[in-house]
Every structure is written in structure tokens, then in C-alpha cells.
Specification:
The protein is of the alpha/beta class and 202 residues long. Helix content is 51%, strand content 12%. The chain contains nine helices and five strands. The chain has helices spanning 14-23, 31-38, 46-53, 66-73, 77-105, 137-146, 151-159, 164-169, 181-196, and strands at 2-7, 28-30, 110-114, 129-134, 173-176. Helix 2 packs across helix 5 and helix 6 packs across helix 7.
Length: 202
Amino acid sequence: MLRYGLTGGIASGKSTVAAMLREHGFPVVEADRISHQLIEPGGAAYDAVIARFGRDILDGDRRISHSRLAAIVFHDRERLRQLNDILHPLVEREILRRFAEFESEGTHSVAFMEAALIFEAGFDRKLDGVIVAWCPPDQQLGRLMDRGMSEAEGRARMAAQMPAERKLAQATEKIDCSGPLDETRRQVDRLAARLQLASPRE
């Protein structure tokens, strides 16, 4: 089974591409969803994150507030690195476990992980290829502001990630998500057709 990554900057269109890949029958593991599960009460990273960032990140139900944690890490690169140092090894372990499950089922020739930080975390070295979904930075910012984020917060989130041009330079495949949805879908359809011809590794 081939193991592919799907990445792109925030609001670049990668979640839309992931949904389209699922429509074609490819399993897609979401790193963000795993990260959220890890910091839930009882999750493998819950205690470590509180120990690192303090109890002020907890809400009234003793859950880690994503907004409070984001307010800390997306304005301080060192604090973001500390969070990633806690989460990345655990996320990687869970993704590899799920890939192994898919492979043992023997029904998929390709499986995907969707994550914003594939290159930053060095996970690309454990994959057979990486698809990069992208759109121009001003479009990313506009989408974030349409979601209710302030311009300053949107720029801070974008600045915390690797620039699109660096991701694109390392991409196996590229999906331009700057145009109409139908054009994105046509690109994904062409990619899916190629991948469906891929043979599982011996």
C-alpha cells in the first residue's frame, strides 16, 4: 500500500481535497482530529500539555480550550515548538498504526494522512509522496477572515507555517485550490485516476 500525505497552509483547501479523495474511496487520516483527541481529558498528551502551558488553558469543564492554547502558541514560535514536540511523536505513532491497519485489510492501494505540518515535522520521509493543496496567501487570509478571524490573527496563523512556495517545491503532486470548486474537483479526479492504477507494494 502506498502512503501519501496531503498538506497545505491554513485555509488552502486541503480539507476540501481530502473530502474529494474520500469520495474516490481513499482512506484519509486527519492529524488535526488525532491531535484534538490527544489533548482531551484522559488523552495521551493531556497532562503534558497542561504541565507545559499551565492550568489557565483549561475551561470550566477541565478541558483544554483550543482558543486559549492557540492564543499562546500562534504568537510565540518557541511555545508552538514546545507544543509540537509533545504532539508530533504521538500523532505520528497513531497515523502509522492506522496505516498498518489499512495495509493489513488489503483493500486499499493508497492511503492518505492530512496534516498541515508534514514537511515541518519531517513526516514526508516516511511517505511515498506528498500532495500539496495551495492558493495565494491573500486568498488564504481572505478565507480566514470570512471565517471570523481577525486579520492580525490570520496573519499570525499563516506566519507560523512553512510558506506555500517551499511546500510546493517539495510536492509530489499539486492541487490549485484558488479557482472554482469544480476546477479543484477536476484536478482531484485526475489525481485519483492515476493513484487508482497504483499497485500495492510487495
